[in-house]
Amino acid sequence: MRTKILMVCLGNICRSPLAEGILKSKLDKEVFDVDSAGTASYHIGKRPDNRSISTAKRYGIDISQQRCRQFTHKDFSNFDVIFAMDKSNYENIIALAKSKDEKAKVSLLLQRSNSVNIEVPDPYYGGEDGFEEIFHLLDSACNIIAQDLMYNK
Ligand code: 4NP
Fold first, then answer.
1. 125 CA → ligand 1 middle, Å
2. Could you give the CA distance from residue 87 to residue 37 in angstroms, rounded to a whole number?
3. Would you give the DSSP letter of residue 96?
4. Is the dihedral angle over the CA atoms 120, 50, 43, 26 positive or is it negative?
5. Ligand 1 atom at minimal distance to the Cα of residue 10
6. By three-state DSSP, how is residue 115 classified?
7. In terms of C-beta distances under 8 Å and separation of at least 24 residues, what long-range contacts does 146-151 make, across chains too?
8. pLDDT in tens, 65-115
9. Is the C-beta atom of 42 inside 6 A of ligand 1?
10. What pLDDT score was predicted for residue 153?
11. What mean pLDDT, rounded, does the chain reach?
């Protein structure tokens, strides 16, 4: 059985597309599916923010083919694990859950990291530096998550 992982932020153009690309780069495509979505509908159909695309590219990851979509209730049945970038994303996802099992699929991406941050800061209104910073937060978190996922396989 394939394991399906969903990364969720607000707009699905900055943080979760990067998280999707980074985690995908660490996992076997034959075994794991990784996708991303946003809790908001602002950018549906758009490609990731250019700053996310260029940051990923610097590290050899191509996220330019991703297209923004909104998180829906169906994602609870389509995915095994759902990671929220910040507490507000987490609350918005939990508000759509209809059962304990659905709620149990959701956690904060940085929960298991040793990072001082528990949330991935929203880089949208900041400069390029913010994208570089979140790349490293996401990368360390995804190293731990990839290890967990492969170990539990
Ligand atoms: P993201 O960043 O949630 O990491 O994709 C944002 C993107 C767009 C907006 C907010 C955050 N926006 O307000 O349009």
1. 8
2. 16
3. T
4. negative
5. 3
6. coil
7. 146/23, 146/26, 146/27, 148/112, 149/3, 149/5, 149/27, 149/32, 149/81, 150/27, 150/28
8. 999 999 999 999 999 999 999 999 999 999 999 999 999 999 999 998 878
9. yes
10. 67
11. 96
